[in-house]
Design a protein that fits this description.
330 residues; mainly alpha; 16 helices
Length: 330
Amino acid sequence: MTQEVARRAAAGRWLLPAAATGLVALCLGLQGRTGRLLALGGAFEAWAAVTVAITLQALPFLVLGVLVSALVAALVPQSLLRRLTPRDQRLAVPAAAACGTLLPGCECASVPVAQSLIRQGLPPAAAYAFLLASPAVNPVVLVSTAVAFPGNPAMVWARLLASLLAAVLVGWVWIILGRGQGSGQGLHHTHGGASRAEVFRAAAVHDLMGAGGYLAAGAMAAALIKVAAPRSWLSVMGQNPAVAVLVLAGLAVLLSLCSEADAFVAASFVGVHPTAQLAFLVVGPMVDLKLVAMQYGAWGRGFVLRFVPLTLAVAVACASAVGALLLSWP
């Protein structure tokens, strides 16, 4: 896959977040000028109020996550992960997944990091396990989840366990299914001889602009569901956890939220079983539209057609199993 195709895929994913960010900024501007979000009243003002509330609640954790990710990019050599993982790829997969708690990063940077690790000699299956685990189990994500679910601390442990389990299982399956895939060529991110300060600035600006826009888009969609969805539809989801799991897993793919902020959107889906909220939190950092576009640019169509369905199925299954064990109705 050429770098030109990769650039086009990356450029296309900025359109929706840019528009969403502009609309949320407009709502904030109107609130500061008139004392109200919008003068139209009714459901539209309720939608704007919920959108801004979710965005503002999640924004501090998003910024913190971006800063931590940028610091890791600037200060921590990627060769450290290679040194921490065993040579046997079957053991390297869980070791690399566990390193996601030590070397956190936004999913926006996960594909370039995985490519770099593969070029340094890390087995592809272990690199993909790190790619899946790091955005979902790092400390900033877990703290934001605890804040978003203050009355349900089990959600934090469920997210950690389900995400690590899914990352490890995908890595192990890929040892068998993915032979010959993922050479580390194609789209990659390099800073050349840039200083650490420049690397930090570039990584922070890139991740904040992209992730902030997707947060705004996700908040808008969640508010629309909260305000406009028929009560009968929400009732069906509340009474049928299996349907709710599939619906929220699909929304996680479409909304493409940053993992540092997705817990606040998940918590806004009140009335559904916590297992469905867990599915939203586990699937989102592993499978979403922006990640699919980046993986397509990095490793090609064949990789995406095999890796994405595998990851989605395993993530939903792990979230369902862990949710059934650890979570219950409040």
